[in-house]
Amino acid sequence: MKPTDEQAGAWTEAFDSGKFVRKSSEFRDHIGKNELFTIESGRYHLYVSDACPWAHRTLITRTLLGLEDHITVDTVDWRMNTNGSWSFNPEEEGATADTVNGETSLEGIYNRAFTGWNESGRIGTVPVLWDRNHNTIVNNESREIVRMFDSFTDAGMGNGISLCPPELRDEIDAMIDSNYESVNNGVYKSGFARTQVAYDEAVTALFARLDELEVHLKGREWLIGGGLGQLTEADVCLFTTLARFDLVYVVHFKCNLRRIIDYPNLQAFVERMIDLPGVKDTCNWHHIKAHYFWSHQNINTFRIIPLGPLEGAHTR
Ligand SMILES: N[C@@H](CCC(=O)N[C@@H](CS)C(=O)NCC(=O)O)C(=O)O
Questions:
Q1: Average pLDDT of every residue of the chain
Q2: Global confidence as pTM
Q3: Is the CB of 288 under 6 A from ligand 1?
């Protein structure tokens, strides 16, 4: 049975037997693979929420690849409305106006890209990759946006780093796949579960995978490659979930078998990522914490934002 939007709270996703089921992203074009969307400096724009782990992947990748001068960014307010919509609010610290289209909400962007969007009842997620030339959304799936940014490197932009070298691509994809349902989406499946069975299942799978990753990272710095490994998209995709874990998911999503700080190798991995040049500046701990506890009123009725924890990734 599908709940009404109101029952679903802040989320537009469906529920199946009490399990949270994430909807797939709507815009799936690719810069560089299609004549419409050629690789050009200054043409593409990211709309992000600093709170969102999926959007955070695109911000970190932009930074690590040195694409700040080539891809512009606007940041929504951390308050997601109860219908799941995002607003632009330049008055809020760390948030901006929509500097490209002058919209006041993200729905406005989706409506520009897809006439009738507003009437369709859909809200629109971050991240969004916008094309100034065609005035449309290229893509709103973080994993694909991250991959596209690597092709800017091939076109001679940025600092020349690749986070997805062709010879590691299959390994990277397999690692991202292995972490997606259990960890990245797993925290949401735990937090939004509507039955004990659905919750138990999600949390068990989540921690089983974290246990495996803890072993995998023993004696390594990065998830992929020989020796200590090499930094790739797989690290970025895992990091944005782990960085939010102790601050938010342990309490808000009831992911409390252990904390990341209790896993020495996972904690070292999180700290290593934060210490990479520019990454700490992409971590807006206030937006992250305030967003979840305030926005999901269906699981935190009085919007109380906890004071702790005293230590964790956010104090790095
Ligand atoms: N599959 C998408 C998921 C993006 C997503 O779910 N973003 C959330 C914020 S963390 C959102 O904008 N939710 C608003 C809504 O569902 O209405 C991706 O990886 O880009």
A1: 94
A2: 0.95
A3: no
